[in-house]
């Protein structure tokens, strides 16, 4: 999914490669890029499930406006992953409603 | 409470321009923007801008953004990022949220340049991950270097839909179709044509019936709509895609001006020629006061900034008037033409010159052979190399005229006029017009009847770049394969700014139809 070389923009400047955790699994991304970008590069599409109907949501606006991309980051729910920079060792979890667990 | 002489809300093209103009005159100016980076949408714009030299035509949006930022820095404009202006109150007081803290500011003048937000449409499956806004696609590709998906369907054929489709192709995505419920393509024909010639089909009078998938997008069904906007049974087509991109228009983000008590004119604040709202000292500039191109937003910003400076006594009346006169003329020229505000909603069938518009361009995205004969910039059967300019709508643009030092291309003073070939001048085949054309609408043709071949040069902005000796297939304007082709030259240069001029050899009969190349 990453654009290796762009015909107009050339190579994208990125930070150091870092490892973070997505639902308990280690994933790599670039430091400082939005968490959502690192997840998309790893093939993750679903960021959360809605509270009432359990419907999946993912990136929609990518600029921090729609809140479709919110996840639990380092234990804090409702973090807009499209505008939150990735740091090494972050714990990112799929959000169900406002928690990390699927309600039975 | 901190006080500034001018507070600008929004560091996009309009806001930065307003701040620069005011700071240049000597005002203590700050710009607040809710994003982590300044520039608004400019840094996502990677195409060459339209307009004329004074509008920074043929310069790519992100380069214009860089220039604006440098200019702002030089003038001493303070830009505060990650700062959301929550409200504007009596006495021009503002509350600004930065992280968890809230601060209060007071501005002697305020310029609101909050821009626009994307419109939405709903259909079954619209909330599935993989359905994204066109702006999101641009953010992902052009700021973060990631493809939004592999196979994309675009809904909307305004300039945003057309430009983003082209950008998706540049990023290496496949665009399976452009779809619009309207009967006609909304954006510039030249933007549509550069997408169409790569082989992307347009479906006008079509809408999305449903997006399929459990956890994310796996496909999409579209259908043709009748006069009552109902899907015609049996017209449905399904595409295998992982992304559906929505480009269904923009709406001004006018909440702040509204909350400040400014009189509204529908969804936009009522403003005078300088951007002044009904509340003294509060101005609005850019998309917030009516959706237009970034080039217009920058001029509106300059005018509002100058007006604030004049009001505060930083500019003499005569200086203010000369600044405004120049900017107004420049803005006026951008607003002329078929796509200008005055023409909105009108059905147009002929150009300003009285030439019948190509219906094929408006419904399929490409010019039909039979449309071409009437245009003053399309020629064939000449000796030597000659330009063919497939620019057939009155858009505010003239870099082609400036590009040709030989004087082959004439537009005249009115920048919306169609380009005309100057029969007196001789083309040297330098390729500068091809690379400079913001619409990628200029081709060079050289016919060699004795060899039964023709050489066709065309603009190319994709990777991998063809190489001399490459063999493949020439595509026509619709993207259909028509004949064998061999690449004979690839020209690249600093002045061409990433638009390469590629020349292919084709059989003579295809001189006026071969317009793009695909490797075998
Ligand atoms: S190829 Fe060069 S000389 Fe010929 S029309 Fe274009 S700019 Fe002018
Ligand atoms: S041919 Fe000239 S006017 Fe038309 S898009 Fe190209 S540069 Fe602009
Ligand atoms: S995708 Fe809209 S807030 Fe992140």
TrEMBL record, chain A:
<dbReference type="Pfam" id="PF13510">
    <property type="entry name" value="Fer2_4"/>
</dbReference>
<dbReference type="InterPro" id="IPR042204">
    <property type="entry name" value="2Fe-2S-bd_N"/>
</dbReference>
<dbReference type="InterPro" id="IPR036010">
    <property type="entry name" value="2Fe-2S_ferredoxin-like_sf"/>
</dbReference>
<keyword id="KW-0560">Oxidoreductase</keyword>
<protein>
    <submittedName>
        <fullName>(2Fe-2S)-binding protein</fullName>
    </submittedName>
</protein>
UniProtKB/TrEMBL annotation, chain B:
<protein>
    <submittedName>
        <fullName>FAD-dependent oxidoreductase</fullName>
    </submittedName>
</protein>
<dbReference type="InterPro" id="IPR023753">
    <property type="entry name" value="FAD/NAD-binding_dom"/>
</dbReference>
<dbReference type="Pfam" id="PF07992">
    <property type="entry name" value="Pyr_redox_2"/>
</dbReference>
<dbReference type="InterPro" id="IPR051691">
    <property type="entry name" value="Metab_Enz_Cyan_OpOx_G3PDH"/>
</dbReference>
<dbReference type="InterPro" id="IPR017896">
    <property type="entry name" value="4Fe4S_Fe-S-bd"/>
</dbReference>
<feature type="domain" description="4Fe-4S ferredoxin-type">
    <location>
        <begin position="417"/>
        <end position="447"/>
    </location>
</feature>
<dbReference type="InterPro" id="IPR036188">
    <property type="entry name" value="FAD/NAD-bd_sf"/>
</dbReference>
<keyword id="KW-0560">Oxidoreductase</keyword>
């Amino acid at each position: 999914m990453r654009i290796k070389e762009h015909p107009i923009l050339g190579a994208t400047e990125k930070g150091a490669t870092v490892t973070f955790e997505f639902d308990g699994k280690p994933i790599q991304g670039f430091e400082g890029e939005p968490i959502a970008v690192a997840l998309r590069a790893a093939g993750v599409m679903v960021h959360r499930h809605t509270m009432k109907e359990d419907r999946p949501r993912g990136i929609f606006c990518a600029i921090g406006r729609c809140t479709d991309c919110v996840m639990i980051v380092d234990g804090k729910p409702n973090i807009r992953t499209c505008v939150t920079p990735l740091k090494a060792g972050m714990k990112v979890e799929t959000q169900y409603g406002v928690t990390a667990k699927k309600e039975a | 409470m901190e006080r500034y002489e001018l507070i600008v809300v929004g560091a996009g093209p309009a806001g930065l321009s307003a701040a620069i103009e005011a700071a240049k005159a000597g005002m203590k100016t700050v710009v607040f923007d809710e994003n982590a980076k300044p520039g608004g949408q400019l840094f996502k714009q990677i195409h060459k801008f339209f307009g004329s030299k004074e509008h920074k035509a043929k310069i790519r949006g992100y380069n214009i953004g860089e220039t604006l930022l440098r200019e702002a820095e030089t003038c001493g404009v303070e830009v505060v990022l990650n700062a959301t202006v929550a409200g504007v109150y009596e006495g021009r007081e503002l509350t600004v949220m930065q992280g968890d803290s809230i601060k209060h500011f007071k501005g002697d003048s305020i310029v609101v340049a909050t821009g626009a937000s994307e419109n939405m449409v709903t259909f079954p499956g619209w909330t599935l991950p993989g359905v994204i806004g066109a702006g999101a696609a641009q953010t992902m590709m052009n700021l973060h270097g990631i493809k939004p998906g592999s196979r994309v369907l675009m809904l909307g054929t305004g300039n945003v839909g057309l430009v983003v489709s082209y950008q998706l192709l540049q990023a290496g995505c496949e665009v399976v179709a452009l779809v619009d419920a309207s009967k006609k393509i909304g954006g510039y024909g030249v933007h549509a044509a550069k997408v169409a010639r790569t082989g992307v089909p347009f479906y006008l009078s079509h809408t999305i019936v449903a997006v399929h998938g459990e956890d994310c997008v796996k496909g999409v069904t579209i259908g043709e709509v009748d006069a009552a906007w109902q899907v015609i049974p049996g017209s449905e087509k399904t595409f295998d895609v992982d992304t559906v991109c929505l480009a269904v228009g923009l709406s001004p983000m006018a909440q702040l001006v509204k909350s400040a008590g400014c009189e509204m004119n529908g969804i936009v604040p009522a403003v005078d020629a300088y951007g002044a709202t009904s509340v003294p000292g509060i101005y609005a500039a850019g998309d917030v006061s009516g959706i237009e191109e970034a080039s217009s937003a920058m001029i509106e910003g300059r005018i509002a900034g100058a007006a604030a400076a004049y009001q505060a006594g930083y500019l003499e009346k005569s200086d203010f008037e000369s600044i405004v006169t120049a900017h107004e003329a420049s803005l006026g020229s951008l607003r002329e033409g078929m796509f200008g505000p005055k023409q909105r909603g009108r059905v147009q069938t002929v150009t300003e010159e009285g030439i019948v518009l190509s219906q094929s361009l408006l419904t399929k995205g490409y010019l039909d052979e039979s449309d071409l004969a009437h245009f003053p910039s399309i020629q064939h059967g000449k000796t030597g190399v000659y330009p063919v300019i497939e620019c057939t709508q009155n858009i505010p643009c003239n870099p082609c005229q400036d590009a040709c030092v030989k004087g082959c291309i004439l537009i005249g003073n009115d920048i919306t006029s169609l380009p005309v070939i100057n029969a007196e001048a001789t083309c040297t085949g330098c390729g500068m017009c091809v690379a400079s054309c913001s619409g990628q609408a200029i081709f060079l043709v050289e016919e060699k009847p004795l060899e039964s071949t023709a050489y066709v040069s065309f603009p190319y902005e994709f990777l991998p770049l063809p190489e001399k000796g490459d063999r493949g297939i020439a595509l026509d304007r619709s993207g259909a394969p028509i004949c064998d082709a061999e690449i004979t030259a690839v020209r690249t240069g600093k002045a061409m700014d990433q638009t390469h001029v590629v020349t292919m050899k084709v059989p003579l009969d295809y001189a006026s139809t071969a317009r793009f190349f695909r490797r075998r």
